Amino acid sequence: MPLSIVVYEDNDLLRESIVSMIFLNKQFCVAGAFNNVLKVEEQVKSLQPDIILMDIDMPGRTGIEAVTKIRSAGCNIPIMMLTVFDDNQHVFDAICAGASGYLLKKHLSARLYDSIEELRTGGAPMSPSIAQMVIRSMHKKPAQVNPYGLTARETDVLTSLSKGNSYKLIASEFGISIDTVRTHIKNVYEKLQVHSQAEAVAKAIHEKLI
């Protein structure tokens, strides 16, 4: 059964382009496409998509505010932000609101399919420049002893996640199985009291845990 996707983008031509790209891949289908997020709660509840693609800069209510609304309603559907912004504030605001990934619009044609698939499997896709920015931000904040009781391996896995690495890459990096990676990530979620990779990475960076 195709993966159901809802698109929020106020630029009509770009929205139509994204929808056309999705339709070209038989693994995906478009459940809805909208030019604003003023009714996002009702639309998401009604359409029940598997993935949401969310522009940040929209009229009336921003994509970041929409993510907050969706998460406040208890909805854990993966949400990938689509934006021209690659500055720290927008990235961290989006992640802290509950975004699952962050893709620059200039990378849509090359990375959209892979990013959607990564979201589907529990990953947190980021454009390369976004991942580099996150890493630079980490380097500016020396690590501190954390109060959450993270083990050395859990911290390693969390650091690798922050670089945008997939479960498969993390498993290869540390010579462990993908199931072991999932176990470490599950433990990290429980200790940090978060519900997604994006939240875990944002909290770790904000509190200088990595």
Report on this structure.
By secondary structure, the protein is an alpha/beta fold. It has 2 domains: 125 residues, Response regulator (Rossmann fold, 3-Layer(aba) Sandwich), CATH 3.40.50; 66 residues, Winged helix-like DNA-binding domain superfamily/Winged helix DNA-binding domain (Arc Repressor Mutant, subunit A). It has 10 helices and 5 strands, in the order E-H-E-H-E-H-E-H-E-H-H-H-H-H-H. The chain has a 5-stranded parallel beta sheet with strand order 2-1-3-4-5, sandwiched between helices. Helix 1 links the parallel strand 1 and strand 2. The longest helix has 15 residues. The model has no long low-confidence stretch (mean pLDDT 87).
| Overall morphology | globular
As for the number of domains, it is: 2
Radius of gyration: 17 Å
**Mean pLDDT reading:** 87
Instruction: List the uncertain runs.
Output: none
Q: Major beta sheet, specifics?
A: 5 strands, parallel
Fold-level CATH name of the largest domain: Rossmann fold
- If helices are DSSP runs of H or I spanning 4 or more residues, what is the number of helices? 10
CATH architecture of the largest domain: 3-Layer(aba) Sandwich
SSE series:
EHEHEHEHEHHHHHH
CATH superfamily of the largest domain: Response regulator
